[in-house]
């Protein structure tokens, strides 16, 4: 890998992580605030996760995975948006199941459970975002 390509990849990685930290902060802080106000923890998770998800899509689309300042086609943006939503619905489902398991079955506090779930879903989110959601679209080739 050339030096400029390595530098670009490093910047992309650092940007993705900075956005991820902000998303996690939004998610965790909003969850904590909602719990403090007496919101049922699973509803709090849906709301907080949704806020982090919106922030993630906007910032990662605009700053992390924008290809050389070129605008993506409307179709590519639609496809990326649909993959992003699908992946995050899966992650939300995983997070809800884990939260319920940790609080109901293991008897952990909601905030402690949220911290554990956050570690797991952050790792899964990075993997799926890098490998599936924000992958570059491959040009269509015509078969002969």
Automatic annotation (TrEMBL):
GO terms for cellular component: plasma membrane. It is a multi-pass membrane protein. InterPro entries: GtrA_CellWall_Glycosyl, GtrA_DPMS_TM. The chain crosses the membrane at residues 9-36, 42-63, 84-105, 111-128. It holds the Pfam family GtrA_DPMS_TM. Keywords: Membrane, Transmembrane, Transmembrane helix. Its main location: membrane. It is found in: Membrane. One of its GO terms (biological process) is polysaccharide biosynthetic process. Residues 16-134 form the GtrA/DPMS transmembrane domain. Belongs to the GtrA family. This is Putative flippase GtrA. It comes from Paenibacillus endophyticus.
């Amino acid at each position: 890998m050339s030096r400029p390509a390595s530098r670009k990849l490093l910047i992309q990685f650092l940007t993705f992580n900075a956005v991820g930290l902000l998303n996690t902060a939004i998610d965790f802080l909003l969850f904590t605030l909602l719990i403090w106000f007496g919101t049922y923890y699973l509803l709090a998770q849906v709301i907080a996760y949704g806020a982090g998800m919106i922030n993630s899509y906007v910032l990662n689309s605009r700053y992390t995975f924008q290809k050389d300042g070129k605008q993506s086609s409307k179709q590519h943006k639609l496809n990326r948006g649909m993959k992003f939503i699908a992946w995050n619905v899966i992650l939300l489902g995983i997070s809800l199941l884990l939260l319920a398991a940790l609080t109901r079955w293991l008897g952990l506090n909601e905030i402690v459970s949220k911290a554990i779930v956050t570690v797991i879903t952050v790792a899964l989110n990075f993997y799926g975002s890098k490998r599936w959601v924000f992958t570059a679209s491959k040009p269509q080739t015509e078969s002969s």
